[in-house]
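Give me the 3D structure for Membrane protein.
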Amino acid sequence: MMWLAIGKVVVAATLISFVSWLSGKKTSLAGFITALPLTTLLALAFSHLEWGDSKQSVEYAKSVFVAIPVSLLFFVPFLFAQKLNLSFWACYSSGIFLLGVGYFAHSFITKLV
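Predicted structure for Membrane protein (113 residues):
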């Protein structure tokens, strides 16, 4: 069990560190890698290894599927940043707020699916 926890931390930290470093070198590639479902791939595999429950893994994957478009709400303020003359922190905090709103939409939708 301990090896799994250490493995999770090492893999996640390496991925985050790499993409963060890459964002300063090749912004477009870093954005593309960040948008990939790498976290989902890792989390689904780790979750299934840890719990071994296929039904739970399927429910988890369905929740992620619904959450992906909802999570894009975070980026909406950034799309309008220049037009509305918004600072980074205004975009960031507005995006967090929109994610909160999106969470309630996610909860509603996953109960329907």
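Residues 53-113 form one domain. Let me know if you want a second pass.
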